[in-house]
Amino acid sequence: MNSQRPVNLDLRTIKLPVTAYTSILHRISGVILFLGLAVMLFALDKSLASEEGFAEVKACLTSPFAKLVTWGLLSALLYHLVAGVRHLIMDLGIGETLEGGKLGSKIVLAISVVLIVLAGVWVW
Question: TM segments (predicted)?
Fold first, then answer.
């Protein structure tokens, strides 16, 4: 098929709606949770294996890098949870219009930012 339409392949100039950003972030947070689960299960296994393992994990979790990773995983979990609740609400038929979808996306982002900041305060 030979199309004469112009094709914009510069991803920096494409303007996506807010609903697209929330959808993309929901998928990214799911991948982060999937990968982070392996790290957390390893730490749990090591901490339950022996007293020395528990002490090592406890000492590791006090480092700034571990706190940053923990905050990142909590952030992904909180965002994924809030966006998932939005999907459940939409399954009930609420917010399925274009305006409702945009408003729901903005609410998800606002609630997530508040929860992520609170999680950061709690971790640090």
Answer: 24-44, 65-83, 103-123
DSSP3 helix / strand / coil % (the chain, rounded to 5): 75, 0, 25
Q: Could you give the domains of the chain?
A: 18-123 (1.20.1300.10)
Structure tokens at 91: 């399954």
CA distance 67 to 69: 5
Unique residue bearing structure tokens 């965002």? 79
What single string gives the DSSP state of each residue in 41-96? Answer: HHHHHHHHH-HHHHHHHHHHTTSHHHHHHHHHHHHHHHHHHHHHHHHHHHHTTSS-
80 is in an annotated binding site: yes
- Burial environment of residue 104 by CB neighbours within 10 A (0 to 12, 13 to 18, 19 or more): buried
Mean pLDDT value across the chain: 93
Q: How far is CA 18 from CA 13, 48, 85, in A?
A: 15, 43, 17
